[in-house]
Specification:
two-stranded antiparallel sheet; mainly alpha; 7 helices; 5% strand
Length: 131
């Protein structure tokens, strides 16, 4: 979950600050060339997070993440990055429903940053624009 959260955040940051998601994709690809980063990045920037069949439905992820958080708390483990991702899963479910894809975390971060949940892809390089 933390990896997915990071990919979502860096892409929204890149879009908002003017760096562009194409440049962030290149950087992410150079630093993390293999899954899961590349898979999450592609689903987010292509719009598959709201258009395609879910990789994992958000309601299932929320059940699992609740168990993980309980285990972390009961063992005295601090997982703040994970907690942010769990909060964004709840936002995805509120925005797009229980069967939405977990990579909709990208949409939740977009909304939190003043952008629409859905992006509009304008090029082959998946540089999203607000819808």
């Amino acid at each position: 979950m933390s990896t997915m959260e990071t990919v979502a955040e860096v892409n929204v940051f890149a879009e908002k600050c003017g760096l562009g998601t194409d440049n962030m994709r290149k950087l992410m690809g150079a630093v993390f060339p293999r899954p899961p980063h590349a898979i999450y990045d592609k689903r987010m920037l292509s719009g598959d997070y709201y258009r395609a069949e879910p990789m994992v439905e958000v309601y299932k992820a929320r059940i699992l993440t609740a168990h993980v958080l309980d285990l972390a708390r009961s063992s005295g483990t601090s997982v703040p990055g994970y907690e942010v991702a769990v909060k964004h899963l709840a936002a995805v479910e509120a925005q797009a429903g229980p069967n939405a894809d977990i990579t909709g975390i990208y949409g939740a971060v977009r909304v939190e940053s003043g952008l629409p949940f859905k992006n509009e892809v304008r090029s082959e390089h998946h540089d999203p624009q607000p819808v």
